[in-house]
Design brief:
The chain is α+β, with helices and mostly antiparallel strands. The chain has one domain (2-62, 69-76). Helices cover 21% and strands 19% of the residues. The protein has two helices and five strands; from the N terminus they run E-E-H-H-E-E-E. It starts with a strand and ends with a strand. Mean pLDDT is 83; it is low at 78-84.
Amino acid sequence: MRMSADTWVKVTDDPDLDALLWERVDALSSQALAEYAHSLGLFPPGYGPTMNPPIALAWPPGTPDDGDGILVWDIGDDSDQAED
């Protein structure tokens, strides 16, 4: 599933924190990965009781699906997502 590029908010630009998240991508669900990110001090914009999105894997336009994606907060609504 690809997310619309205008809804992407990268989880972090810090390469060390990004590496820590990537170490757990395959072991945790999207929501559990978000909770782990919180434990590292990372929160999405507008975070709170009604804004606690999971983390999703997204691919910038032109990137092959089997290439490396980026970790983003899944803050878009379902209408922003489409099947490939």
